[in-house]
Amino acid sequence: MDGSSWLGILPGILAMAAVFTLPGFGVLRALGVRGLVAWGAAPAMTAGMAGIGAVLLQWAGVPWSLASFVLSACVAVVIAIGISLALGTLREPPVRVAGQRLLARRERCWLAATWVIGGGLLGAAMMVGMRSANQPAQAWDSVYHVNAVWFIKDTGNGSSLGGLAPMYGDTIAPYYPSVWHSLVAISPGFEFVTQAANASSIVIGSFIWIGGLVALARVVWPGQALPVVLVPVLAATYVTFPAIAVSMLGVWPYALSVACIPGTLALLISALRRELGPRVHAAYGIGVLGASSGVMLSHGSGLFSLVVLAIPLVTVLFARQSLRFWRRGHRAVVAITLIAATGISVGLGWLILTSAPVASIVSYQRGGQSSYLPGLGSLLIDHPLIYVYDFTAVNAAGTVLMLAGVVLCLRTKHARWLIVALLATGALTLLAAGPPDNPARVLAGFWYTQASRINQILLIPVLMLGAGGAAWLVRSISTWRRVPLTAAAAVVVLALGALTFGFRWPMQTQVMASTYSHWPIAWGTMLEEEEIAMVDRAATTLPDDAVVLGEPTAGSPYLLARSGVQVVYPQLTPIAGSPERLLLAERFNAWQYDPEVCEAVRALGVTHVYADDLTFADGGKWQEETAGLRRIRTDLPGFERVDSGGKASLWRFTGCDLP
Fold first, then answer.
1. Which terminal Cβ of the chain has fewer Cβ within 10 Å, N or C?
2. Among the ranges 96-100, 136-140, 467-471, 525-529, which has the highest mean pLDDT value?
3. CATH number, domain 529-657
4. Is the model's pTM score more than 0.85?
5. Strand 648-653 with 608-612, pairing
C-alpha cells in the first residue's frame, strides 16, 4: 500500500467510521432509539463504551485490541437488549418529538446528496491541506497524541487510568482521556500510525460531526425537513470546526468530544421533549447517560461543553414536564424530584469542580487581547482565533443566516434555548479572547482559557440557527417566485457557495496546510521533507535496541510513531518524565565536562543522538527548556554519523563510553 495515497487508505477510513459508529448504534438500537438520532448519537455511545471498556479490560488483564473491543461491545448490546426486554421497550414505535414526521424518500435522497456535498467538501479540504495520507502534523499536541496511539498499539493498554504512562517514561501513571487514542489504535486498514491519525480527522469531520448535526437539526426543527437537508452544506462553510481542531490545535481527543455533542443533545431532546411513559423515558435516559459519558471521557472539557449547551435545553424541557405532572396532581413527586435533582447537581458539581484534573485545567495560564472587539469580529466572520491567516473567504453569509434563525426563533417562540446557548458560548469565547485581568475570565478556564476551543461549541447553536434561517429563506424564495422548494433550495446552496468563495475552500485548505505542508509551518517547523524521509528510514538504519536522544521540537519524537524507534522524549514537553530527562534537556551539550550528564545517558540507555541545524530564525520550533539539545557538536569524538536528511542527522553516540 502506498503510504501517501488517500485512495489507498480509503478502506481504512470506512473501517474506522464503522469502529466509531456501529458499536454505539447497536446499543442504542437495542434500547429502542432509532433513525437519524440513533446514528447521530452512536459515536458518543461508542466513545463511552470504549472509555469504560478499556479500563475494565485492563483490570481483567485482557489486552486492548479490535477483537476484545468487539467482544465487549457485543456484551454491551446483550445487556441493552436485556434492559429493553425488562422495560418492554424493544418493540416500541419510534419516538417522535412534537410535530415530527418521517422524512419522505425524496427528502432522504436530498439529505444523502447534501451530506455527500458537505461532508465531502470538509474531507477533501482536509486531504488537500494535509497533502499526503501519511504526512505528520506539526502542531504541539499532535505529536503527543500520535505517539500515544503507538504506545497503546505496542502495550495493549488503552485505559485512561495510567495507560499512557509510557509517555512519561513510566515515572507516573496519570489519568489521561485516551478514548480517541484507543479507538484509532484498533482501527484496521492502516500501515502507519500517522495514517490512522490523519484518517480520524476525516472521520470526525465528515461522518461524526455531520451525522450529529443532522440528528440535532432533526429534533430541533421536528416539523421540517429543510433544516436537516441544509445543515451539512452550511457546516462545510465553517473552518472553526473541524479544521482548526484537527490541524492548528492538533487536539483530536477534544475534537472527538465536540463532534459527539450534537448527537448527544439530539438524544437528550428525544428523551425529554414529550411524555413517553416511564419505561421509554428510562430506556432513552440510559442512552443519554451512555452518550454523555462518551463526550466526557473523550476529553475532560466535554463535560463543561455539554453542560453549557444542555442547561438551557434541560431547564426548559424539565420545567415543562414538571408543570405537566404538577397539573395532574403529582405534586409530591414533582417536589421530591426537584429537590433530589438540585441536590445531586450541586453535589456532583462540587466534586467535579474541586477535583485535581479540573483544577489543573482551570489554572492553565494564557494571555489575551486588550479589547473584546477583535474576538467579536472574528466570531462574526468565522475567522480563526488562534493564528493570523489572510482575511479572505470570510463567512458573513453564515452569520446572516444565523441572525435570521434567531429572529425566527423569537417570532415563533420555538427552540429559544438555542439563543441562550449562543449567548453563553459567545460570552465564554470573548472572555477567553479578551483582557486577562477580567475576574470573570476564570469561567473560560474549563477550556484552558483558549478561545479557539470554546468557539467550536459555539458553532453548534450557530449551525442550528443558521439551518433554520436557511430553511426560512428557501421557503420565502419558493413562495415569492412560485418555484418548487427543491429549486429554491438549490438556489440558496449555490448562493451560499458563491458568497463563501466555494464553501471556504481557500481558508479550509490553508488552515490544514499551515500545520501539515506549508514551510515554514505555523508556530515553527519540526520536520522538513528530507528529514521526514530520514525519520522513516530509521526503521532500517538504526538497530532494534536504539534509544535516540534529540531536541523534541526538532522532530525526534516522530521516530517512535513512524519507525518504531525508542526515543527519550515521546512528547514535546521534556519535563514530563524523570529527572534524567530534564537534566539532558538542559545540559546534554556539556557531556564532556559534566559527569552527571553521562550518568543520565547511561541510566536512560541512550545509544544515538538526533541533531538538527534548523534554527528559530529559519522557521524552526523552539522551546526554552531544551537549550542543552539545541546546538550539539557532532564533530567531537564519540559521534558517528548514521544518516542525514535536510538539516537533521542521526548519530551513534559513544562519547560517554570514552575513557
1. C
2. 467-471
3. 3.40.50
4. yes
5. antiparallel
